[in-house]
Amino acid sequence: MGYIKHYINSYNLRIISTDLTEITQSVQKLHKLSAFSATILSKVFLSTVLLAKDFKNKESISLQWQTNSPLGIIFADAYNVNYLRGYIKTSQENLIKEKNEKEFLAKYKGILSINKYSLLKHPFKSIIKTTENSIDKIFTDFTIKSEQIKSEFHTNVDTDINGQITKASGFLIQLLPQGNMKKFKEINELYKNQTLDELIKKENFGLIYETKIKYKCTCSREKVFSSLKLLSHSEQNELLKRGAIEITCNGCGKNYSFTKNDILNLIKTENNNE
């Protein structure tokens, strides 16, 4: 379980904060992620939730980051009011020598695809190159360009000596119309030496509303089985030769088993539809 909170103050500054510690701890354990992989994925989770900040208007974000590195592809979705899901696909982290965010992003320039949906706005899709050396900076630049609002992302992930996540939280601060630019810059500087809770109290931010966030995958046996229909005839016949098969969902790790008869019925149905 996690949360997202919305604050505003008299200087027309908005803060959206989130804590996904429990969710990221569960995902790290589920996918057996190292401290480095878990940190990168957690920062993407935090940023995705902050991008989908207007959950009350059913904002949804679907993100795909082709890292162009042995880490592979990172997926994250924030959807249906208060759900989050995501994973790293084809991770070969053992081939990565850079073990901190700055060095990793400096070496590997990837492609980030972001799809944003809302009941109040038209769908928005953007594809950007990850040229910055900070995940916060990547999402800050994207938000400024897409929303035309002065913004700053601040995400933080802590791990213990065993590489396990102990904290995953962050916030987005935005300068609303007629907002105080001086205060905006001041708060971003103060955050270097103060906690978010201290800043919220000191700068008189009032809580507008809070939404709980849950990790939830949308996979099902029917969806997984339907994906087999996309295989070529030769690939389906290869599965038939193998007999019973088991497919694991990348998002939640759930296993789905299919018998030889399941595959045979699939092939027969496909042949009848041709």
UniProtKB/TrEMBL annotation:
Signal peptide start and end residues: none
InterPro entries, per database record: Heat_shock_Hsp33, Heat_shock_Hsp33_C, Heat_shock_Hsp33_N
Ribonucleoprotein recorded as keyword: no
Protein origin, superkingdom: Bacteria
GO molecular function: protein folding chaperone; unfolded protein binding
GO cellular component: cytoplasm
Keywords tagged on the record: Chaperone, Cytoplasm, Disulfide bond, Redox-active center, Stress response, Zinc
A Gene Ontology biological process term: protein refolding
Record PANTHER family: 33 KDA CHAPERONIN
Official protein name in the record: Heat shock protein
